[in-house]
Q: What sequence folds into this?
């Protein structure tokens, strides 16, 4: 991403996915299927972080949140379509059909201009200006954003391009001493933890076992999975509208703590049922509460953390930061999926969701104190926040207000 640009990186990342689905489609043995799954999984994981960075750099501050949330909605929609196709079509047919989005995406990538932010980081200011205006037009806001971006990079020393491997390793390790790297990475790590503790991946993966324990019926696993897919996708699409209307923090914490309240309510209900304190004849109650929980969780706790990947990383750290974020999120998914069967076996459904809910609540509390508001902010403004601990525009606004107060006192 840092070496060849966003455009080249995106094209390169797609190719393993194409090869992966071809391996699966043509696979004659288990080894071929495993290789195909590894290749397609690499593309899936890498494109989550890279795609967020690309959208963040290419889109305007006013539309950035909507586009980033629509990216999450698109992933949810794709997952739902695969589940539907997998139920009605042969798996080779599904693999063949899955190739088309990759091929279309690869073709579209070659129509992009290079990222203006990446060009600026390479001191290619003329090319950056052309690409920026091609993407954003010549509005006053766009010109101001480009000016601030170029000014910030001109003030920085030129990085030596031909560094040795050891020098690059040392340079990467030095990043962990810089607050403009550490704090965004911590926020993204917490974001990945929030996604998994809100059960974004574990519930669909173990839907049959979870719903089966609640209702006593495990024969309708496809319909359970489909219902979850519809709820998640619809909520993510609706979130793309809400993020335009409300601040990121407001949407995240209101929906997050609401989801937490509903989750603990259903855990309490299931615990009382397990102790025969209340009857198990009303299975629609926990099912309805789970539906409400997933609506709340997928309005904020899933799309906004993924959107932060494209917003909080400073330009100098987007390559290494995105790679580290992808690693952290992959580990979080792996751990969540591996421990869930043991939790379901030992502490049942109510205990499992109590554990995840407690971790989710703790993560939300920590993020409440460290997450800045990014709505309608340029990426340069967000970067300045991590460098200086405040938004420069807010400082200027406060200064103007003080000057206005002094003038009013002098007049009076």
A:
């Amino acid at each position: 991403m840092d070496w060849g640009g966003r455009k080249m990186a995106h094209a390169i990342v797609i190719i393993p996915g194409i090869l992966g689905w071809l391996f699966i489609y043509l696979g004659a043995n288990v080894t071929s299927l495993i290789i195909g799954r590894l290749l397609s999984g690499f593309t899936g994981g890498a494109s989550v972080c890279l795609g967020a960075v690309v959208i963040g750099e290419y889109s305007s501050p006013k539309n950035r949140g909507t586009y980033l949330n629509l990216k999450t909605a698109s992933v949810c929609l794709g997952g739902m379509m695969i589940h539907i196709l997998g139920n009605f079509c042969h798996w080779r047919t599904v693999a063949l059909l899955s190739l088309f989005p990759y091929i279309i995406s690869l073709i579209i990538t070659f129509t992009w201009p290079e990222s203006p932010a990446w060009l600026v980081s390479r001191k290619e200011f003329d090319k950056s200006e052309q690409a920026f205006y091609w993407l954003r037009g010549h509005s006053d806001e766009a010109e101001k954003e480009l000016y601030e971006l170029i000014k910030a990079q001109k003030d920085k020393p030129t990085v030596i391009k031909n560094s040795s491997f050891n020098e690059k390793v040392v340079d990467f390790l030095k990043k962990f001493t810089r607050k403009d790297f550490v704090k965004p990475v911590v926020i993204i790590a917490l974001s990945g933890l929030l996604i998994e503790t809100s059960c974004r991946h574990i519930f669909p993966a173990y839907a049959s076992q979870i719903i089966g324990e609640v209702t006593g019926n495990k024969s309708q696993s496809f319909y359970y999975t489909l219902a979850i897919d519809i709820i998640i996708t619809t909520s993510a699409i609706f979130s793309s509208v809400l993020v335009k209307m409300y601040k990121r923090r407001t949407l995240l914490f209101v929906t997050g703590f609401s989801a937490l309240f509903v989750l603990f309510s259903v855990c309490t209900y299931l615990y009382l049922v397990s102790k025969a304190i209340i009857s198990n004849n009303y299975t629609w109650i926990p099912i309805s509460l789970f539906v409400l929980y997933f609506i709340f969780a997928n309005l904020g706790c899933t799309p906004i953390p993924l959107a932060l990947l494209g917003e909080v990383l400073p330009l100098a750290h987007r390559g290494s930061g995105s790679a580290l974020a992808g690693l952290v999120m992959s580990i979080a998914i792996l751990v969540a999926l591996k421990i869930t069967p043991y939790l379901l076996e030992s502490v049942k459904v109510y205990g499992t969701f109590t554990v995840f809910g407690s971790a989710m609540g703790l993560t939300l509390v920590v993020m409440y104190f460290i997450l800045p508001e990014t709505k309608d902010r340029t990426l340069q403004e967000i970067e300045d926040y991590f460098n200086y601990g405040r938004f420069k525009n807010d400082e200027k606004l406060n200064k103007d207000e003080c000057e206005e107060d002094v003038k009013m006192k002098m007049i009076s």
Q: What stands out?
A: The chain has 18 helices and no strands. Residues 6-112+183-381 form a domain with the Growth Hormone; Chain: A; fold (CATH 1.20.1250.20).
